[in-house]
Amino acid sequence: MQAGARLAPNGIVRPLPGGAFGEAPLTPRPLDAGMGLAVARRTVFRPYDAECFGRVADRVAEGNMSLLGRPLGAREVAERARLRNAIATGALITSGRHLQHGDAQQASRNMEVFTNCATAIASFAKFYLLLNGSGVGRAYDDALVAVDWAQAPDVLLHLSPDHADFPHDRASLHRFGTEFGLLPWGTGEAAFHEAAVRRFIAEEWLASTADAPAGAIVHAIEDSREGWAKAIERLESLAFEGARGRTLVLDFSAIRPRGAPIGGMQGRPASGPLSLMRAFMAIRRDVIAPARDGRLAEPWEQAMLVDHHLSVEVQVGGARRAARMATKNWRDPGIIRFIRAKSEGGLWTANNSVMVDAAFWRGVQAARAGSARAEDKRALEVFEDVTRCAFVNGEPGFINGDMLEDHRTGRAREKPVHHDGRDVRSARYQVDHASALLADLAARAAEAHFPCTTNPCGEIVLHVTGGYCVIADFAPLLACPVDPATVLPGVMPDAMAADWDDRVEDAVRLGVRFLMRANSMDALYAEEVRRTNRMGIGPTGLHEWAWARFGLGFDDLLDEAKSAPFWEALARFSEAAKEEADAYAEELGRVRPFTVTTVKPAGTTSKLFGLTEGAHLPARRQYLRWVQFKGTKGESGNWLPDSDPLLADYEARGYPVRTLRSFPGMSIVGFPTLPLIQRLGLGDRLKTAPEASPEEQYRWLSLMERHWIGAERGNQISYTLKVYTDRHDLEAFRDILLTHQPQVRCCAVLPSAPDAALGYEYLPEEEVDEAEFQAIVAAIRDPALHEALDMAHLACAGGVCPI
C-alpha cells in the first residue's frame, strides 16, 4: 500500500488524500498586495506569523489535527504535512475563522469561534453566537416565538463610579453623550451641556446596588462572552416565566474597560461595559415599555427588536460586524409588517427573507390568473409587497424553504425534544435559567411548517432551534502546479492537467476531513452537531479556474455542451467530497454528514488572493473596497487611544480613510482593487456581474446547483444577483423573480441603482472609473500595492495590451 493508505472494513484500500501536495513543505503563495494583505493583517496574521501565509498554514494544520485527541501516528503526521501544503498554496483556504483562530491550542477552544454559520431560537443564544463571530439565522415565525417581553421584570442598571469607563470628566461625558445619541452629531466638546448628560446618567442608572428595591434579583455580569449572554438569558427567561412586577438589577462593574485587550481575539480592543449597557437601555426603552402599553404587542416583533439592539453592539465590538438572517413564514398574519421591518421599522442589522414554498408560487400564479381563493390572493399580496420593498432596498428576499435539504428529506423533524437544556450546553456555557423556554420552543419547532432556516448568507440549511455548520473554501485555480498566470488558457500537457486535477480533488478531500475534525470540538450545540455532522465545502475563484484550466469564459460556461469538461470536473469533485465524508465518518465512528457541499460568499478567503468570490462574477473591473476598523479621531484630529493602530498606518500611507456616523466608533479604509481575473488576459471575454443578464445568472446558478451541490446532501449557494433599475422596472423585476426564483433553493436578488442614489453612508465596493482609480493609486505610498496594481493590467483588460 502507498504511504498513509488505510484498509477499510470492506477490504478496499483507501489512500490517504493529499498525495499530490506531498509532505515536504511547499513555498507559501504570496497574498494579493493591497486588499489581500490588508485583510490578512486585520483578521488573520498574528505577530509571530511575520506576515507569512506558510506560518498561518503551519498553525492551522497543527491545530486541526490536534482535534483527534491522541498522539499522531505516521499516517496523521503525513496528513498534517499534506494539509499544511494545501493551505499554504491557497488550494484549500479553509475559512477566515480557521485562519484567524487555528493553532496548537484549538482543542481547548470552543467551536463557536470556528463556525461561520449558525441558527438560534432565543435571543441569548443568538447574542452569544454573534459575540463568538458566528453569523446567526433566526426564524421569527409566530409558531416559534414564546416570550412576551411585556412580562419582563423591571430592569435597573448599575456601573460602579470607580470603573474606568464611568464618565466623570468633561471629555468622557462628551464621548458618552455622542455615542448614546444625546448630542446632535458634530457637537464639539466645548459646546455641549455637561449637566444634561450627568442628569441622564443619574436618571437611567442605579447609583448603588444597595439602593435596589427589596426582593430584587441582583445579577453581576461576568467579564466574558458567556457572562454577557448569561445576562440576556436571565432577563429573557424571566420574561418567559412572567416576572412582570419583579426587579432585575444588572451590575456591569466587573466588565473590563473599553480598549482592554480581548484574549482569544489577538488582543483586539474590548467594547467595555457601556456598549452592553446601551443595549439593555434600548431593550428597556424600545421593547419592554411599548410591549407593556400595547404599542408593540406581537412577540415575534418584540424578539426582532431585542435581537436588533443586541446586534448593534456586536457591530461595534471591534472584531467584526454582526451577521444575521431573519426569516418568517409567508402564511403568518404579521408577514406584511415583517416585510416592511427594514424599510419602515429601521431594523437594519439582519438580512430579511420570507420563507415560501411551492404552494406560494402556485398561489401567486393563480391569483394573477384571476383566482379568488383566499390563500392565492394572500400569496399575491405577499409577493407584491416583498417585491415593492425589495425593488427599493433589496429586501426582503425569498427562500424556498421546502427545497432545503433537511426539509425535503424530513430529517429536520427527526430532532428530539429535550427538557433538560442539553440543546444549548457546552463546557463554557450551560443553560440554567432557560431550560423550560428551550423545551417549549423545541416542541413548537417539531410542529412548525418550516423546521429549517438558513444562516445569514443563505448557503447553509440549519434547524430552527439551533445548529452549526463548519465551512471551508477550496480554490481550484490555486491548486495549479505552476503559476496560473504562465499557463496558456485551456492548453497544457496532459500530465500537467492531470496533476492539476489531482491537486484540486486532494484539496477537496483534505477539506472534508478538516471540517469533520472541527465537528468534534466543544460546542454549544454539541447535541445537534453529533446528530447531523453537518459541513459545507465549496469552491471559490471559479471563473479564474474556468479560464485558466479550460479556456472558458462566462458565456461559454452557460453552453453546457461546450463547457462539458468544466461541469464534469465539478461534478466529479462533488462526488469525491461526499465519498470522503462517508469514509472518514466511518473511520471516526460518526454519522454520515447530513450535508456536505455548499458555495459560501468566500469574502475574506477570496480577497486574500484577489479571487472572484464563491460563485459570483467579478463585481467590477476596478473599484475601492471599503473595510471597517474600530476607531475615530478626537477633537485634536488625532486617532483616539483605543483606535486600531492600522488606521493611522493606512492614513499615513495615503489610503482613503473616512469616519462613519451610522456605526459609532468605526472608520473605513478604501483599498484600490484590481481583481486577479483582470490580470489573466481574458480581454473582451471577461464579463462582470453588471454585464450579465439576470437570465444568464439564474442559468449559471441552476447549473451550479445541479453539478456541485448535487441532488442529495447539498446545502445551497450563496449568491447575490443584481437587477439594475435603469434597465428593469418593477414589473420586469417581478416577472424575473416569478419566472426564475421558484427553480433555485435561494438567491438574493438585489435591485441596484447608482451608488449615490442608494442612500447608504457607504457601500463595501465603490466603483471608480479608470482615471480616478489611477489617481487614487498614485496618491498611496505603498510599493507592494504599486507592484500588484501595475496600470498595464488595466490596458490589457481594455484590449490594448502593451505586452
TrEMBL record:
<dbReference type="InterPro" id="IPR050862">
    <property type="entry name" value="RdRp_reductase_class-2"/>
</dbReference>
<protein>
    <submittedName>
        <fullName>Recombinase</fullName>
    </submittedName>
</protein>
<dbReference type="GO" id="GO:0031419">
    <property type="term" value="F:cobalamin binding"/>
</dbReference>
<feature type="domain" description="B12-dependent ribonucleotide reductase insertion">
    <location>
        <begin position="203"/>
        <end position="284"/>
    </location>
</feature>
<keyword id="KW-0846">Cobalamin</keyword>
<dbReference type="Pfam" id="PF21995">
    <property type="entry name" value="RNR-II_ins_dom"/>
</dbReference>
<keyword id="KW-0560">Oxidoreductase</keyword>
<dbReference type="InterPro" id="IPR054158">
    <property type="entry name" value="RNR-II_ins_dom"/>
</dbReference>
<keyword id="KW-0170">Cobalt</keyword>
<dbReference type="GO" id="GO:0004748">
    <property type="term" value="F:ribonucleoside-diphosphate reductase activity, thioredoxin disulfide as acceptor"/>
</dbReference>
